[in-house]
Amino acid sequence: MNKTQFFLGILLAALLGGVMAVGLMQYFDTGRPATTAFQNDRNVQLSKFLSDTSFIVPDGINFVYAAEKVKPGVVFIRSTYNGSGRGTGSSNPLEELYEDYFGDREGRERRGPSRSSGSGVIISADGYIVTNNHVIENADKVEITLDDNRMYTAEVIGIDPTTDLALIKVNENNLPYVDFGDSDDMNIGEWVLAIGNPFGTLTSTVTAGIVSAKARNINILQDRNGRQIESFIQTDAAVNQGNSGGALVNLKGELVGINTAIATPTGSYAGYSFAVPVSLVRKVMNDLIEFGAVQRALLGVSIRNVDASLAKDEGLDMVAGVYVEGVATESAASEAGMKPGDVILEINEKKVGSVAELQELVARNRPGDKVKVTYSRNGELTKVYATLKNTMGDTEVVRRQEEVQMEGSIFVTPSAETLEELGIEGGAQIISLGEGKWSDAGLKEGFIITSIDHEKILNASQLEEVMQSKSGGILIEGVDLEGKNSFYGYGW
User: Fold this and answer.
1) Does pTM surpass 0.85?
2) Could you tell me if residue 74 is inside a domain?
3) Residue 252 DSSP class
4) What is the distance between the alpha carbons of residues 70 and 179, in angstroms, rounded to a whole number?
5) Closest by alpha carbon to 450, among 436, 466, 439?
6) Among all residues, which ones are annotated catalytic?
7) Residue range 338-365: mean pLDDT, rounded
8) pLDDT digits (tens, 9 = 90+) for 186-195
9) Are both 213 and 242 inside the same structural domain?
10) Where does 252-307 have alpha helices with state H?
C-alpha cells in the first residue's frame, strides 16, 4: 500500500466515523433538531428530486423519457393562403420580423396560393391544439399532421395576437396530448427539451438546453395600445424556422412553454430561443375554449423597470420592483388608491422584478378578478386589493363575435346592447387597432364605424365588402363608446 492509498483510507474512515457519530446523536437526542429549517427544506426538495427516478439513469440525465412521452403530442402545421396570401396587403405586426424569428414561409412573394409551416401541441384528447398566432394568422386553410402521419383539417377556435398564441381544433378523439406543467417552478439552469418541426421537413425533432432566463421581454410583439405580453422563458435549446408553436417541456415530459422566437441575425438558430410560459398559455387557452375570446385584465398603470438611475432620480430607497409612472382614471389601480410614484413589489404575493413579470402576473387573471398588490410609497409598504377591468373599462365578459381583419385591425359587429345604448342602427366596431391605415386615419380602439362615404355600415362584414372597392379619399363616420359622433377623412 502506497502513501496515497494509506491517506485516503484514513480519510474515508474518519468520514464514516463522523457520519455514524452524528447519526447516533440524532437517534438518542430527539429533542434537538440536527439541521436548520433551511437545510431541512433543501433536504426535502433533494429527497423529492431523487425519489423521482423516471428521468435519471446511471450515466446521467435521461432525455429519452420526456422525448418519447411528448413527441406523439406535437404536430406539424401547414397553413395555406389563397391569392397573394401574406405577400401583399398584410399588416401583421410580426410581418417584418417574421423571417428573422419565425416559421418557414414558402413562396411568400409568389402569386397564387402560398404556404407557411410551423408546429403545434395537442392539449386535450378531443383535439384542441395550441400554436403561435403567427403560424396560422389569416390562413384560408390549416392542416395538421400527427406524429403517426395522420392528417386533418383544423378549425381556428381563437387567436390572441398580444401573446402570439392561437387555439385550433381537429375533429378527433383519443388523441395523445401533452400534460401542462408549472413554468413558475422552472429554475434557471434546469434542463428542458424543445420539440417541433424545423424547416418544414424535419418532423418531430428534439433538442435539449437549459433555462437561461425567465420573464424576458425582447420587443417583438407589437400592439397599438401597448397591451402585448412578453414574459418569455429563454433557453439555449436549438429552435429554428418551423419550430414556432412547438413544445418546451421539462424532463418529466410536462409542457412548460410554447416555442415562439429565436434571437438571430441570420434567421437560423444562433444561441437563444424564447417560449411563452405555460402559466400564460393555460389561461389564454381556457379563455378561448370557454368564451371564444381572451379576457384581457388590466391594472390600468403605465410602468417602467426600476434601475439605479431611476432610483437616484426619484429618490427611491430600493432598486427593486416596477415603477408606476401613471395611473389611468377609473382604472383598477386608481380605485385601489394607487398613485404615480408607487413602486409595485408583489402581485398576489409573488415578487415582481420587471415590467414583463408584472404584465404576466396580471394577464393570468380575468376582468373582475381581485389581485393583491404590494407597493412601496415613500418607503412605506402598502397592500391593497385591485379589481381588474377589461379593455372597455368594465368587468364584463367579452364573448367571441364574427371578426373581420383589415389593414392590421380587427372589427366585429357591435352587440345589441351596445347598439341600443348608443342609439345606433348598426356598425363595425374596432376591437383591436394595429399598425395600418385605420390607425393612421386617427381612429381609436372601440370606435364604431357607421358609414363610409355616407353609405351605411350595419355590420363588420358589410364594412369589409364596401372597402374592397374603395381607393383615394374616403369619409369615415362613426361614434365612440361615449356616444360622440366623429368624422375622419383619409386617403385610402
Assistant:
1) no
2) yes
3) T
4) 9
5) 466
6) 134, 164, 244
7) 94
8) 999 999 999 9
9) yes
10) 278-291
